[in-house]
Amino acid sequence: MSSSVPVEPLIAVIGATGTGKSQLAVDLATRFNGEIINGDAMQLYKGLPIITNQIPTEERKGIPHHLLGCIGFDQEPWHVSHFKKECLRTIKEIRGRGKLPVLVGGTHYYTQAVLFKEAILGDGENDEESGNADKERMVADGNSTPQSEKFPMLNAAPEVILQKLREVDPVMASRWHPNDTRRIYRSLEIYLQTGRPASEIYQEQQRLKDAASILDNQSLHDLSYVEKNTSTRPSPASVGPSHLRFPTLLFWVHTEDGELTRRLSQRVDNMAEQGLVAEAESLFNYLNEKHAQGVEIDRTRGVWVSIGFKELEPYFQALLSSASTSAANANGAGSVDIVSDAASIITSTSILNPEQLSNLKQSCLSSIKSATRHYYRQQIRWIRGRLWNALTDAHATRQLYVIDSTDACSNPSAWQSAVREPAERVVESFLSRGVAECPDPRELSEAAKRVFETQLQSSVAAGAVEGEERARQRTVFKCSTCDVCGITVQSDEQWEVHVRGRRHRRAVKSAEKRRARVDELVQGQGKREGEGERVDH
What we know:
57% helix; two-stranded antiparallel ribbon
């Protein structure tokens, strides 16, 4: 790490829903001549500002917001690779205008895809992805040529590919089961791409990752260690399976659990007053219209899985059921089926009175609150787990700053002193002097100190367990084939299970009987031949 002004700086604001991310992003963009990029998958959709909780226009303070409300809910959802491509294009355009890009959002795997530039390999076990995922990566990277066209060997039969892998990388060939064609293919592909065995690259990456983790933890505990070792310290671009794409400063806006639960409950009530139910009902009506046209909507992705619509759907079913049944009765007809595939809570013959409808509506709103609580805990787990691990791999945990907004969102003066001003000081230092001169992330607040101590302790414990498991796998993770049964196994544990199994024991007994019969035949033949020889002499 060197004390230098970042050439292509990026600010990222992350955190759970309801913590004040959007407000901080606007503050920083206002102070440092920036433009904001939305990193929330649901906020990509237009026409649903309340359900997706988009920042109101009046709160944007004239700051341009990109990738916000840019696709229709009837359009194909964006895959993470498409988002990454569009986001990187937008970052480039913002910089072209001489502005600072500020990425903000709660879909953290979208954010992480933009922040980190992955190396060619992962950890070996999870690196081999499906063909569809490979195509997604090629599109995202602007590369449209399949690897099988570059390397015709990859078009060969699986047994030919396996034999070739045995020649160039016997370690990986022995690691995978002969039927695991996907991983065998990927291992050979790596060799053809790099000219080096995948096993050798995995081993090198793990050494770098382990070294980076040790240095990173040491630097957080003793900043003087950083100053003494900057000349020999691994750079972020070389320390592991991923590194930051740009010089980046991350702000994790954090609110204590009890306060955040209260705040989110109040937010749902406010959203209901502002038109949440009407927005969700428009989605419900759209579904029914499409159903009537014979068009079925995939409700397992896109805006259909957003919090708000699916929880309110039973209420809309009840309204439609009551209205349809009343109309049918008025015309002297029977009940009318509801055009919906929704839950069995409401049947086509149900008619709820106004009080029951009101109670059902409140129950649905309570479900939204519960789903929102579950979602924010998922967001925090992602930050504490995957994002922290990626930062550790990239030797960049010192670039993550925890901002405590627990007492600040409803108090303007507290917001200024606890959120905006600390963040502005860090950004000022980052832009003018570089990461090395930024303050210790733990010194921003007591909450920041607690979070970092917890993360470091978890990293040490997880590292010890991971190291033991990794060492165990390295010594035993090798395929073996039983010469009696022809079964291939991938570990000592599987081997022990196999040899103790009834099938193997029966096969061994059968083999012993066959050998005994063969021995008897051979001995009998030898005896007859010997007797014949004696007669001849």
